[in-house]
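Thread title: Can someone regenerate the structure for this chain?

I was given the following input by a collaborator and told the matching C-alpha cells would be attached. They weren't. Posting the sequence so someone can regenerate them.
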Amino acid sequence: MTPRLVALIATLLAVLALAGCGSDGGDKPRTVTVVGTGKVTGTPDTLRADIGVEATAADVSSALNESSAQVKEVTDAVVAAGVDRKDVQTQQVSLTPQYSNPAPGGTSQISGYQATNTIRVTIRDLSKASDILAAAATAGGDNTRISNVSFAIDDDSDLMKQAREAAFNDARTRADQYASLASDKLGKVQTITEQTSGAEQPATLQRDSSVAASPVPIEPGQQTLTFSVTVTYALT
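Best answer:
Regenerated them for you:
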C-alpha cells in the first residue's frame, strides 16, 4: 500500500468520525417549559406574638431589674392563661441610654436608661388567644408592647401536598395544550422547580391601656397556601 493511499484512507476515516459525532449530539432535544399553580385554603391553628416590656430608670441596674421583674410577671401570666412554658422564648433584651434636651449652647446629658425585654409567645389553642393576650397586657401594664402578631398553620404538610399536586396537574394540562398546538406529543419530564408562599398571615391588634385589659378580639380567618412549579417536558 502506497503512502498516498494510506493518507487518503486516514482522511476518509477522520471525515466519517466527525460525521458520527455530529449525528450523536448535533440536534438539541425540543422541549416545552410551563408554570403550574396550585392553591389550597386552610384555617390557622397557631398564633405567634412578640410581647415586650419597657422600663425606664435613673441607673442601669434599676432599669434592668424592673424590666426583668415585669417580663417575669408577663411570662407567668401567659403560662397561667394556658400557654405551655416551652412555647415562651426570650426574643430580645436591650438597654439604651436616655438623653435630656440640652439648653441652647449646651450638650445632651444622660438622664436615665431604658431596658426592654421581649418574649415570643406561641399560642396553640386559639380559643384561649384573646384571654392570653389580655392577661399579658394586664400583667405588664402600660409598659406592655405587643407586636409581630401572626397566624400560622402549625402542620401544613397535608395542605402542601394538595397544593403541590394541584400545581403539577396544572402544569401538565398547560404542557399538553402547547404540545397539541405544536402538533407534537408530550414526552418525559426534564426538570422540575418549585416555589411556595403564604406560610404566615399577619394580624393587627389594638391594646386597651386600662388597668385590666379586656379580651383582645381574635379572628384567624382563612389562610391560602400557593404553590408554583416550573416543569420542562420533552416533545416527541
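The radius of gyration is 33 Å.
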